[in-house]
Amino acid sequence: QVQLVESGGGLVQAGGSLMLSCAATGYTYCMGWFRQAPGKEREEVAFIDRYSRKTYADSVKGRFTASKDNANNTLFLQMNSLKPEDTAMYYCAARTGRACRVMPSEYSYWGQGTQVTVS
Question: What is the percent of the chain with per-residue pLDDT over 90, rounded to a whole number?
Answer without folding.
Answer: 88
